[in-house]
């Protein structure tokens, strides 16, 4: 089981010279929230978890979501300093590589991405040239590492459980929590992907919830219940009071039972196979073949079918079926 540091990293200096500007962009096809964060004083910006649109039926990628982010950079005359991934997503392709080609910036993720790359290099039987050492990214964050967006200090936090490599980013008075917590009425992320672990996720979440109660939390996905509009901003105090899976008083044993029970009935994410082979390459498509075309690989009879497929196939390599899509997913 991956280790989770027991104390929150509270390394940000008290001096916060500028308020952080936050703009959220919701992709209703995948339920993903991407963000442009910027320091108004220096006009330096970071993008968190950008989405590359992908049409599974045609195999075509488009940049509608990424173009919204680029338009915001342009409109506010922002310079892109960082493209921050919280983890190798299983529900959407990353637009990090596309954005870097248009606007620059350094693509960063947690250093444990190497473990995810090694797992999926084997699963996809990737080309020999693909090395699981993180070199596809410009920077690999260690737990507790500080960095800056303009003059605003930030801290990278390793929050494993959903995957072994998940990161949260504490920036100014807020934290981008990735796939740990969702909105309080939705709960938490699934923990059944390869290298995922419900107890580890619980400890990562409690680490985040040990931050001051007024700390703003921004989630990576929202799958709003019927009648509620998509939302993405909450607070530590709100999560501790109301999160349906991990409010104060829920023990680790209770959470693990709840999480594992739920994960056993989730379907496989629609885009897991297209997504991960691109996202472990920092959003680059696979190398073109001799005809100049990039191809995605679909390993046959390796992943389990989810409960919806009514098969007796074995679960995901780590131990379960899964789900995705804005309707009923925990990814
Ligand atoms: Fe995820």
From TrEMBL:
Keywords assigned by UniProt, alphabetized: Metal-binding
Ranges annotated as spanning the membrane: none
Pfam families in the record: Lactamase_B
Annotated Metallo-beta-lactamase domain residues: 31-221
Keyword Ribosomal protein: no
SMART domains referenced in this protein's UniProt entry, alphabetically: Lactamase_B (SM00849)
Positions of the UniProt region annotated as Disordered: 307-331
Name of the protein: MBL fold metallo-hydrolase
């Amino acid at each position: 089981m991956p280790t989770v540091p027991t104390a929150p990293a509270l390394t940000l200096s008290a001096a916060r010279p500028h308020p952080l500007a936050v703009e959220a962009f919701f992709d209703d096809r995948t339920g993903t929230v991407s963000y442009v964060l910027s320091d108004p004083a220096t006009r330096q910006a970071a993008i968190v978890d950008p989405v590359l649109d992908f049409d599974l039926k045609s195999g075509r990628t488009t940049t509608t979501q990424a173009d919204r982010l680029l338009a915001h950079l342009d409109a506010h005359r922002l310079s892109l300093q960082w493209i921050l991934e919280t983890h190798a997503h299983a529900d959407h392709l990353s637009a990090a590589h596309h954005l870097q080609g248009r606007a620059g910036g350094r693509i960063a993720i947690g250093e444990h991405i190497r473990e995810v790359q090694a797992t999926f290099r084997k699963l996809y039987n990737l080309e020999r040239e693909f090395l699981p050492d993180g070199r596809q990214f410009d920077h690999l964050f260690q737990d507790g590492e500080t960095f800056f967006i303009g003059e605003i200090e930030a801290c990278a936090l390793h929050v494993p459980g959903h995957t072994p490599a998940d990161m949260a980013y504490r920036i100014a008075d807020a934290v981008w929590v990735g796939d740990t917590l969702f909105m309080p009425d939705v709960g938490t992320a699934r923990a059944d992907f390869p290298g995922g672990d419900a107890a580890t996720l619980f400890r990562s979440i409690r680490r985040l919830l040990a931050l001051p109660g007024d700390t703003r939390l921004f989630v990576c996905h929202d799958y709003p219940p019927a009648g509620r509009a998509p939302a993405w901003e909450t607070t530590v105090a709100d999560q501790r009071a109301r999160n349906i899976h991990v409010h104060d008083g829920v023990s680790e044993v209770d959470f693990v039972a709840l999480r594992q029970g739920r994960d056993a009935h989730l379907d496989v994410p629609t885009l897991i196979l297209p997504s991960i082979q691109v996202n472990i390459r920092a959003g680059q498509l696979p190398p073109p073949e001799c005809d100049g075309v990039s191809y995605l690989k679909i390993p046959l009879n390796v992943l389990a079918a989810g409960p919806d497929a009514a098969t007796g196939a074995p679960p995901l390599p780590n131990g379960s079926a899964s789900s995705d899509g804005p309707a009923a997913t925990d990814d």
